[in-house]
Each structure stands twice: as C-alpha cells, then as structure tokens.
Amino acid sequence: MMNLAVFASGTGSNFDAIIQAIEEGKLDAQVSLLVCDRVGASVIEKAQRHSVDTVVFTPKVYENKAAYERALLEDCRTRNIDYIILAGYMRLIGPTLLEPYQNRILNIHPSLLPAFPGKDAIGQAFEKKVKITGVTVHFVDDGMDTGPIIDQEAVRIEDTDTEEDVKRKIQAVEHRLYPKVIQSLLVKEESL
Length: 192
Fold this sequence. Notes:
Elements: E1 2-8, H1 13-23, E2 29-36, H2 42-49, E3 54-56, H3 65-78, E4 83-86, H4 95-98, E5 105-109, H5 121-128, E6 132-139, E7 149-156, H6 163-191
Parallel strand pairs: 1-2, 1-4, 2-3, 4-5
Antiparallel strand pairs: 5-6, 6-7
Helix pairs in contact: 1-6
C-alpha cells in the first residue's frame, strides 16, 4: 500500500476528501503524514481526528528554504512516503523535495490551467468574466502551477453565480477528482 504525505496550509477540505476516499475503499493508500506550515490551521485538527501523524513547521525559523525542505524530506523518508499530495499548500516546492520526489508530487488547482495560475484563481476567473473554469490536477515542478497536467474537469459559471457558489462547485469537483486521479496513478505504478 502506498504511503501518502499531504501538505496543507488551511482548512483541509481536500485532506478530508482523500481520507474519506480511503475509508470508502476508493483509494488504496494511507495518509501517513500531514505537513502543515501554519500553526492553528484547521487541517491539523482533522488529521488528529484521523490519527494521522502531523508535523507543523514554521519556515521562518529555518536558515533558508533548502534547510526547511531538508527537514520535510527527512520526515517523509522516515515514514517511507511514496507520494506528496499538495492540498492547499501555499508554498512553492524547491529542488530539495522536487529531485527525490520527481513526478511524485501532485497539486490540485481551482482553474483549468494554464488559465489563472497562482492565488485567487476563482477571483481571477470572475474578474475576466469567463463562463467556464474548472479544476486541474498536475505534477509539481519548480514553477507556480506549471507542471504537467494529469487531469482536468470543467465547471460552468452561471450568470447568477457568486464567487462563493463557484467555490462550492469547484470544491465538489476537487473532492471527487483528486482521490480518483491519485488512485489511477497508484494503480498505474503498481502495474509496472
């Protein structure tokens, strides 16, 4: 069974979706580690409820990004982590993690990349008045939301939708799509 580390910075709705997919037998993996870079983030409590080992790092206490990522890498190696799953983790990943986990770090983004990368993708979509946005799952590289796309799903923005409406629609897609994509990658790897 594959060991996953989920990196998150906020509420952890995608963390919950991954745990639920595992409990329902839709995802054949286990979350062995939660990494959070924000003390007091809601996702920490969610991980504790599910007895998931949790480490909370404050990046500012490290000499530099490489030192911070070396500490993360050590925690991942100690737990034999196979894949790193970014779920609202608001930091760019550097070479210290990218090299040992090449094509094993996934991210989910609330737009149809390459449109609206970075922060506030839903707000960007509203500002541009697009009618279609969506969700993208991609491998992580050294850019911001620039890694190879694994899967995408469109979400329609209706004239009557508020940003909150679109956020709910996107999260519903994320919570279904992310575990499905992770499972498909694990099945593909196990068949090799």
